[in-house]
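Customer escalation, tier 2.

The customer says the design service returned an amino acid string that "doesn't look like it belongs to this structure." They asked us to rerun it and document both sides in this ticket. The original structure tokens are below, unchanged.
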């Protein structure tokens, strides 16, 4: 059974918001990218952990708008010493639509828009 997409609302300050949970998906600062890179990527010790490895696995709970995934994918692609294969596993009880994934990138983190569009094709 396919889970219906959870709608994303946009606050006046431009941040994505979940009315269902009465919470913002991420901060307004740099569209959440700085938060994701600092807290998720560097908090998990990436990319240092995957460097020079044959493969590396990341497990995330709470996919949200996919920002941690997009930041991880972007960092992996830019890392000349990256692992040969990166496995990224994420769970989400209340997924958003592929359109909202792209819309979030377009509005809040346009540098990741090409990756978001590629993700949406596979979503």
């Amino acid at each position: 059974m396919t889970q219906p997409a959870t709608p994303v609302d946009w606050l006046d300050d431009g941040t994505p918001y979940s009315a269902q949970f009465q919470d913002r998906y991420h901060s307004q600062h740099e569209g959440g990218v700085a938060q994701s890179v600092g807290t998720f990527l560097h908090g998990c010790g990436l990319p240092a952990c995957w460097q020079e490895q044959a493969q590396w696995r990341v497990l995330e709970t709470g996919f949200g708008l996919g920002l941690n995934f997009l930041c991880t994918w972007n960092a992996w692609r830019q890392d000349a010493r990256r692992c040969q294969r990166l496995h990224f596993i994420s769970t989400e009880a209340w997924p958003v639509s592929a359109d909202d994934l792209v819309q979030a990138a377009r509005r809040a983190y346009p540098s990741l828009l090409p990756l978001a569009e590629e993700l949406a094709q596979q979503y």
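Tier 2 assessment: The sequence is consistent with the input. Strands lie at 9-10, 16-18, 23-24, 55-61, 85-91. The chain has four helices and five strands. Sent an explanation to the customer and offered a walkthrough call.
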